[in-house]
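Input structure tokens:
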């Protein structure tokens, strides 16, 4: 079990360690990532924090850059895995739509998020949820207790990730191999859109219901992550503005 928890800790976003009820002052929700309003440089986007998966893992590099006249977050992974995370408190019944822009220079050779040894993605958007863990099956509650004991962090009620997959079709729901409380949804698949900007709009409310079979609780944090630690590959990606929106 200790090895299982260690592997999972390396696969999670550190959103589980942040206070979801205290978004940074000056940030007007539901918008969370107006990177375009910042200036390029080595500083992090306002309100975002580095999430380092493990001291044994090489961190992915993140910085604000100018790309085609817009300030965006640039990520470079070289056999590495870390992310940026932003605490929020969002009711998906009011703001069900998540919108983001992304670009990546390539797929990660050998990546396959259905396989434990190859679970990498050039672009990930990760949402952590609050919820009543006492309602979960015994196996999930025991897992959360063991995770807390080993990592000294609270395991979130659920994690939903939007990923870029090499082969799995768009819309596929992939269950994490360690726990049923993590689901991945394929937002991009294949290399047809490599090197181009694309805007995504996903109904997180409906995606959560489809992935977990229940009503979604409140979103407590959002993260971005470019990771290639399992395959050892290299990839560069860009993240544009991110926002929660009402239905139009």
């Amino acid at each position: 079990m200790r090895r299982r928890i260690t592997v999972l800790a390396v696969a999670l976003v550190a959103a589980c360690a942040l206070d979801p009820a205290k978004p940074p002052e000056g940030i007007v929700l539901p918008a969370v990532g107006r990177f375009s309003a910042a200036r390029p440089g080595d500083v992090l986007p306002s309100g975002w924090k580095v999430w380092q998966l493990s001291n044994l893992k090489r961190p992915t590099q993140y910085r604000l850059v100018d790309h085609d006249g817009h300030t965006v977050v640039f990520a470079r992974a070289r056999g590495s895995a870390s992310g940026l995370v932003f605490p929020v408190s969002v009711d998906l019944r009011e703001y069900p739509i998540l919108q983001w822009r992304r670009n990546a220079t390539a797929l990660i050779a050998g990546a396959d998020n259905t396989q434990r040894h190859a679970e990498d993605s050039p672009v990930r958007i990760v949402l952590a949820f609050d919820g009543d863990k006492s309602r979960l099956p015994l196996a999930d509650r025991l897992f959360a207790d063991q995770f807390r004991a080993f990592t000294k962090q609270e395991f979130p009620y659920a994690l939903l990730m939007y990923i870029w997959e090499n082969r799995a079709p768009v819309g596929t729901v992939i269950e994490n191999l360690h726990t049923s409380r993590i689901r991945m949804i394929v937002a991009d698949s294949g290399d047809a859109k490599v090197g181009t900007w694309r805007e995504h709009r996903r109904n997180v409310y409906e995606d959560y219901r489809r992935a977990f079979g229940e009503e979604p609780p409140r979103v407590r944090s959002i993260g971005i992550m470019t990771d290639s630690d399992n395959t050892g590959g290299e990839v560069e990606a860009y993240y544009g503005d991110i926002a929660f929106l009402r239905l139009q």
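The domain at 2-245 is CATH 2.60.120.260 (Jelly Rolls). Confidence is low (pLDDT under 50) at residues 9-21.
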